Amino acid sequence: MALMPVSDALAAVLAGAEPLPEEMISLDEAHHRVLARDLAARRTQPPQAMSAMDGYAVRAADAATIDSELTVVGEVAAGRPFAGTIGAGEAVRIFTGGVVPGGADAVVIQEDTVAAGKRIMIKEAAIAGRHIRPAGVDFREGDVLLRKGSRVTERDLALAAGMNYPHLVVFRRPKVAILATGDELVMPGTTPGHGQIIYSNGYALHALARSEGAETIDLGIAADTLEATTAGIRRARESGADILITTGGASVGDHDLVQQALRDEGIAMAFWKIAMRPGKPMMHGRLGAMGVIGLPGNPVSSYVCAFLFMVPLIRALSGRSVIHHRRERAVLGRGVGANDQREDYLRAHLEERDDGTRVVLPVNHQDSSLLANLAAAQVLLVRAPFAPKAEAGTACEVLRLPV
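RESULT FIELD:
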């Protein structure tokens, strides 16, 4: 099978990926969930004109000149409105958040008055509308303020509460099952034997999936046997996973059994080689509603492929309005060589200079086994297939890695 271009591979992964069913959850549970419906305000905020300062509610015409004297006829505090209407020559003591009394059209802050019993003297002329928050200045009933497909931030939670929503309708979280393969893998904290390595891929993949709002299911490490690999795939189906991620065993060696196990379980393979670096031996297929992504075993390849393919799939199933990574413009801090037929994703440092210029410096060693370089990188420098040699200062495109 010829190497599939990255864009075609991503289109195949996302084909048929529709948002998961809706569910209603409490506001307390809604942080970083994805709205399944537009949210329109159920109330006007503020519902009446409110004072923005501590001071005195007045008629601006009565306090238009310095040394004007007014009679204080009442008091307003937040939640305790004044029952009457302000008349000529009158003022009402008011506190921040208090409802502006009828007849008043300005607030004079307390620092600009001199009080003597029930009388105040104005030391700064009032201006109509000053220090008053008009009714509806924040939003009005019926205003659509949060949109379907948006991921709820902590600020959105405050807004939804202010709009009078105790519950939100969101899309169900995708379930991502992760299955590692390989006799050589041992868990962190153990002493590897001869030829063994510490298992690291899963920790990054679980964290990456959870950061995108997915639930994750750890299927552990399958031995390099067809039976063990098949058993792991079946556990993913039984768990109700929406996505199965495998790591390792994606090549064509005698011990790379993932593709055979997937085929034996009836998974239709869309591709198993991509024209990208790192990550050429990546697979994708479907088993019913479950999407399957077979990642390479090398840790950098595994992470980069998950970032480029798993993340958009999670976002699509989550109902996000934006599912693709946004490419940013930058300039090369040092030259890079010509590229071959594979699209390159080089790990790189990003420097933002005082003038706003973003400068990209690829790490010196791009081997797909080097975790330290991956952890230190801020971006992936994208190099198109057959891109010519480029000198320092040349414009380029990058993808920011999560922080």
